User: Which sequence fits this backbone?
């Protein structure tokens, strides 16, 4: 159910941003709001608190966004609170930002290596991923995991390209044991 709520509200905000021709502006505003919420987790506790009325929650949200977000983005967040869906707010935000990235052809990849990659290696990985995906740009999250021994593990969405030495050793071991 949570995914349906995230999608319904996130898609509504995305469609609104398209209709008003303000996709980038709304995305910037929503990113700022997401960062503020992440830096202040007690804010979500306040929005979910059962002893605080919806009207008080709406007032808090309006005060927080006053001068920081457009009327449409503020209206979206107020609508979420009025519907009692504030518990799903972060999922809605993530859905909206994902829709914006898809619209703008911006990919997201997780790259795991055995040791930290140099800037030149990162540039080569980014170039290759852009060629492979056809995206205009790509956001890459780099991680280090010495247990993969060498090579790279690249995850884009639900697709994984595992070219690590650990996987190659495991595959070879299985092949030897099965022969």
Assistant:
């Amino acid at each position: 159910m949570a995914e349906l709520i995230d999608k319904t509200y996130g898609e509504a905000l995305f469609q609104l941003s398209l209709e008003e021709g303000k996709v980038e502006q709304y995305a910037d505003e929503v990113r700022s709001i997401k960062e503020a919420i992440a830096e202040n987790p007690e804010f979500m506790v306040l929005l979910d608190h059962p002893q605080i009325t919806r009207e008080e929650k709406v007032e808090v949200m309006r005060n927080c966004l006053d001068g920081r977000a457009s009327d449409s983005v503020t209206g979206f967040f107020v609508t979420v609170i009025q519907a009692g869906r504030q518990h799903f707010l972060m999922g809605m935000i993530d859905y909206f930002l994902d829709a914006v990235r898809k619209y703008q052809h911006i990919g997201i990849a997780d790259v795991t290596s055995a040791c930290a990659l140099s800037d030149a290696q990162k540039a080569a990985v980014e170039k290759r991923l852009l060629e492979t995906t056809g995206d205009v740009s790509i956001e890459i999250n780099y991680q280090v995991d010495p247990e993969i021994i060498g090579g790279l593990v690249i995850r884009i969405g639900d697709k994984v390209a595992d070219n690590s030495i650990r996987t190659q050793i495991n595959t070879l071991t299985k092949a030897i044991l099965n022969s």
Observations:
- DSSP finds eight helices and four strands in the chain.
